[in-house]
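Example S7 (structure tokens).
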């Protein structure tokens, strides 16, 4: 049975992440052409805001082999078995937290032309050999094109910003996690998309949150304060064993505030 433990050292986080990655590599290898880790778990954990257990996730992208998974009920059973295998293998050993995982099959994204290829240095390859560019110069995308993509994706939060009030009006206890899941994966990207408009976007997306916060403090101090407090309360939520309704609501308010302020600042830049 999974039991969360108090984190006393950031190296404990890295130890858990590395162990989870080894287990997922073993599980996924028979099913994928390649797999890699990206996002906060793949970057340096310099300060506590860089990775908050179970609020941050293991962002694993895979390119599935054809026919790797069945469809319908059998496919669902297969997927549930894989998730259970990961949880079982991980919790057999010593750990502090069970890294929450988000696995995305990018094979269909490639077919649709909606996938932005990362630089090899910004990912951690789990298995296979993804043919990704080594440097910024190898990417067929200019800085201005990258900024345009970030602006367009920033607009994707607009509907959520309008509807979020009503969606949290009746949230209590277990329902609060569902509310947080709506925004926790949007908070950091909303800030990156703002900063990319005046800084080198390739460099912005390489930064861990500690570096992003330092830049925010210089350019957008109001957003910087919200950003810092959001992750402080996210740690408070973890340390409460995800039982503190007050910590949930602080995260919801601050996370929304970050996205709102980032969107307002982006609109001012576009004006």
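Recovered sequence:
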């Amino acid at each position: 049975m999974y039991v969360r433990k108090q984190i006393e050292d950031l190296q404990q986080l890295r130890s858990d992440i590395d162990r989870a990655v080894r287990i997922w590599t073993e599980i996924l290898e028979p099913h994928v052409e390649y797999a890699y880790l990206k996002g906060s778990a793949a970057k340096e954990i310099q300060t506590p805001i860089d990775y908050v257990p179970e609020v941050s996730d293991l962002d694993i992208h895979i390119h599935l082999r054809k026919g790797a998974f069945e469809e319908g009920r059998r496919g669902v059973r297969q997927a549930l078995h894989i998730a259970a295998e990961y949880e079982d293998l991980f919790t057999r050993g010593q750990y502090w937290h069970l890294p929450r995982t988000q696995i995305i099959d990018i094979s269909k994204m490639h077919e649709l032309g909606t996938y932005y290829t990362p630089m090899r240095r910004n990912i951690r390859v789990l298995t296979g050999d993804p043919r990704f560019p080594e440097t910024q110069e190898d990417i067929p995308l200019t800085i201005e094109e990258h900024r345009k993509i970030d602006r367009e994706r920033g607009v994707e939060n607009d509907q959520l910003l309008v509807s979020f009030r009503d969606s949290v009006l009746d949230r209590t206890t277990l329902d609060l996690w569902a509310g947080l899941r709506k925004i926790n994966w949007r908070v950091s990207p909303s800030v990156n998309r703002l900063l990319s408009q005046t800084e080198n976007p390739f460099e912005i997306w390489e930064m861990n949150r500690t570096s992003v916060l330092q830049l925010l403090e210089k350019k957008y101090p109001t957003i910087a304060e919200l950003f810092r407090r959001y992750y402080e309360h996210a740690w408070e939520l973890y340390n409460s064993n995800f039982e503190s309704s007050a910590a949930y609501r602080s995260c919801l308010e601050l996370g929304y505030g970050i996205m709102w302020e980032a969107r307002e600042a982006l609109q001012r830049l576009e004006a």
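Notes on this example. The first strand starts at residue 32 and ends at 38.
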